[in-house]
Amino acid sequence: SQQGEEDPQALSIQEGENATMNCSYKTSINNLQWYRQNSGRGLVHLILIRSNEREKHSGRLRVTLDTSKKSSSLLITASRAADTASYFCATDGFNDMRFGAGTRLTVKP
Amino acid sequence: DTGVSQDPRHKITKRGQNVTFRCDPISEHNRLYWYRQTLGQGPEFLTYFQNEAQLEKSRLLSDRFSAERPKGSFSTLEIQRTEQGDSAMYLCASSIQEQETQYFGPGTRLLVL
Prior knowledge:
The structure holds two protein chains of two kinds. Helix content of chain A is 0%, strand content 57%. By secondary structure, chain A is mainly beta. In chain A, a hairpin with a 4-residue loop joins strand 9 (85-92) and strand 10. In chain B, a hairpin with a 2-residue loop joins strand 5 and strand 6 (53-57). The interface between A and B is medium-sized, with 26 and 28 residues.
């Protein structure tokens, strides 16, 4: 069963704009991870945030985690056409990861 | 390239045939995971190994599915008597230990006719 749910399901923006994607989950977690997947390809790990962290940055990515609301957000600043992909959040289960259905981001040049 | 490789990348088979996929994880990674992904969905966990031991299997993994990791290195996933509903992308991932980043391979896309 899938744990995380991303919102929105699809997002279309212009190059240079910021993109924000949200993830909600149901059970307690040790960490939450964000992945990117280009069409028909494998998943690329973007960032991991642990349950005792509230915010984390990596280049143009900013991730927040609110364990009280069981939610996380991924912000991509100054988006580029190459950012076009599906973005998934994944929460750690007991021994595995649970993914949501993803947000499909389209960045128009 | 994450360092995790999968073979083959694509497989077309007829219903009722058996198929086997291979995953080579990053060499020092103890944990190896298999996921299945259908169109428009996120990956769904199938099973994982800690070294050569298979420690958990999802209810998605019917008795037609079997996975092995005989020497704690590469792993194989076999599907017997394939059905059209088995058509999906099969993803392998590895991590150095639990609760750490999982690195995914490019996947094997299976189409059952």
